[in-house]
C-alpha cells in the first residue's frame, strides 16, 4: 500500500439507505494523531445505520462524504505503539470526530484518541476478530453494571433476564453471565430457541412472539434485567433491583439508541419517561434504572481474547466489499443471529 494517497471506501452523503455509496478517502501523511490500518474485514452494527440517520446540523453538511463502520480487523500501516504489518482488531469512533472516517474502507484512517485496538489472536480469522469489539464491549459493560446489584441482593442464586438473547450483544451478555454462574432467562423468536438453549445454555427461554414475556420474566424473579432490544415491557418487575437498557424505550432500529435517547427530543414522551424513571430509581423508589453505552476499555477488549474461543464468535453472514449495500440490508432486517461481516480484501 506504500505510496498510495487515496483508497476505496463506502461513504454516506445523506440518510440510509439512499445516502450510502462507494467513494474514496484520502490517506494523509503518517502522523502520530492517526491510526492507519489496511482493513481486512469489518463488521456492521445498527449504530452504523443510526449514524447515517442522525439529523444534519446545517446546510454545510449536505453532500459531504463521510465514513462509517466502527469494528475492524486488519494490518497496521501506522499506529503509535504498533509495528507496521501487525495484525490487529478493534473499534473506532472516528465517524463521530471531525475526521468523520470509518472502517468500511480498504484503508482506514482513524482518530487515534477514539480508537481502541489490540493485537489479533493468531487463532482468530479476520472475520471473527472484526465481529467482536463493539458487541463484546457492550455485553461486558452490561454485566459489570448489574454485578453490584446482584451482590447487594444477598441471594446465593443470581438471576438475570436478558431481553434479546440472539442479538449480537445479547449473545455475549449471556456467555459472560453463564461464565459467572448466573441463571439466565432470555427471549428470542422460536427461530433461535435451540440456539439459546443448546449453544448458549440459557436456563429458560421465552418466545417473545407468542409468550407473555413480562409474566414469565416476573415468575423468574430476577435481580437484574438487561434489555438488548428496547421497549418497556419488563420495566418495574417486583423485586427487581436493576434495569438497564442499551436501547431505551424505543423499539425501532433506525434512530440512535443508548443514552442519546435521554436527549432525543424528536421523541419527547420517551425522553420524559426515561428521565423520570432514572430519577425515581436514583432516589431509591423502585428499581435502579439506566440506559447505558459501551465502554471502549482496552483491558476489556484484551479480556475477550482469553475469554472467547473462535467457535463462540457468532457470524450471521459475510459479504464481499462490493456488496456492502446487501450487508446493510441483512443487518437492517433485525433478524441476524450474530454479526454481519464485510470482507474488505
Ligand atoms: N448502547 C450501546 O452501547 C449499544 C451497543 C450496541 C448495540 N446497541 C443497540 O442494541 C440493539 C441491538 O444491537 P445488536 O447489534 O445486538 O442487534 P442485532 O444482532 O442486529 O439484533 C438482531 C436480533 O434481535 C432479535 N430480536 C429482535 N427483536 C426482538 C425482540 N423484541 N425480543 C427479543 N429478540 C429480538 C432477533 O431475534 P429473532 O430473529 O429471534 O427475532 C435477532 O436475532 C440495537 O438497537 C443497537 O442499536 C446499543
TrEMBL record:
One of its GO terms (molecular function) is oxidoreductase activity. InterPro entries: ER (IPR020843), GroES-like_sf (IPR011032), NAD(P)-bd_dom_sf (IPR036291), YIM1/Zinc_Alcohol_DH_Fams (IPR050700). Coiled coil: none annotated. CDD domains: MDR1. It comes from the Eukaryota. Residues 19-342 form the Enoyl reductase (ER) domain. SMART domains: PKS_ER (SM00829). Pfam families: ADH_zinc_N_2. This is Enoyl reductase (ER) domain-containing protein. It comes from Meira miltonrushii.
Amino acid at each position: 500500500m506504500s505510496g498510495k494517497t487515496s483508497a476505496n471506501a463506502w461513504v454516506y452523503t445523506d440518510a440510509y439507505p439512499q445516502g450510502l455509496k462507494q467513494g474514496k478517502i484520502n490517506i494523509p501523511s503518517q502522523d502520530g494523531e492517526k491510526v492507519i490500518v489496511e482493513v481486512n474485514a469489518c463488521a456492521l452494527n445498527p449504530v452504523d445505520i443510526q449514524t447515517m440517520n442522525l439529523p444534519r446540523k446545517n446546510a454545510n453538511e449536505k453532500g459531504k462524504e463521510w465514513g462509517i463502520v466502527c469494528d475492524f480487523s486488519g494490518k497496521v500501516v501506522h499506529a503509535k505503539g504498533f509495528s507496521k504489518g501487525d495484525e490487529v482488531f478493534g473499534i473506532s469512533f472516528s465517524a463521530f470526530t471531525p475526521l468523520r472516517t470509518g472502517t468500511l474502507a480498504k484503508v482506514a484512517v482513524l482518530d487515534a484518541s477514539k480508537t481502541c485496538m489490540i493485537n489479533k489472536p493468531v487463532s482468530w480469522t479476520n472475520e471473527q476478530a472484526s465481529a467482536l469489539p463493539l458487541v463484546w464491549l457492550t455485553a461486558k459493560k452490561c454485566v459489570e453494571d448489574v454485578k453490584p446489584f446482584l451482590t447487594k441482593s444477598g441471594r446465593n442464586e443470581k438471576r438475570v433476564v436478558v431481553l434479546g438473547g440472539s442479538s449480537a450483544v445479547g449473545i455475549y451478555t449471556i456467555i459472560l453471565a453463564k461464565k459467572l454462574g448466573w441463571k439466565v432467562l432470555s427471549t428470542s423468536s422460536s427461530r433461535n430457541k435451540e440456539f439459546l438453549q443448546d449453544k448458549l445454555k440459557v436456563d429458560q427461554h421465552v418466545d417473545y412472539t407468542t409468550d407473555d414475556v413480562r409474566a414469565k420474566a416476573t415468575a423468574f424473579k430476577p435481580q437484574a434485567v438487561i434489555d438488548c432490544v428496547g421497549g418497556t415491557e419488563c420495566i418495574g418487575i417486583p423485586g427487581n433491583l436493576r434495569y438497564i437498557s442499551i436501547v431505551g424505550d424505543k423499539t425501532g432500529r433506525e434512530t440512535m439508541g443508548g443514552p442519546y435517547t435521554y436527549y432525543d427530543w424528536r421523541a419527547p414522551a420517551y425522553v420524559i419517561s426515561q428521565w423520570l424513571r432514572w430519577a425515581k430509581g436514583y432516589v431509591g423508589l423502585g428499581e435502579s434504572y439506566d440506559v447505558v453505552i459501551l465502554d471502549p476499555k482496552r483491558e476489556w477488549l484484551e479480556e475477550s481474547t482469553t475469554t472467547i474461543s473462535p467457535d463462540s464468535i457468532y457470524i450471521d453472514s459475510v459479504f464481499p466489499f462490493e456488496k456492502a449495500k446487501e450487508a446493510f440490508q441483512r443487518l437492517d432486517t433485525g433478524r441476524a443471529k450474530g454479526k454481519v461481516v464485510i470482507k474488505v480484501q
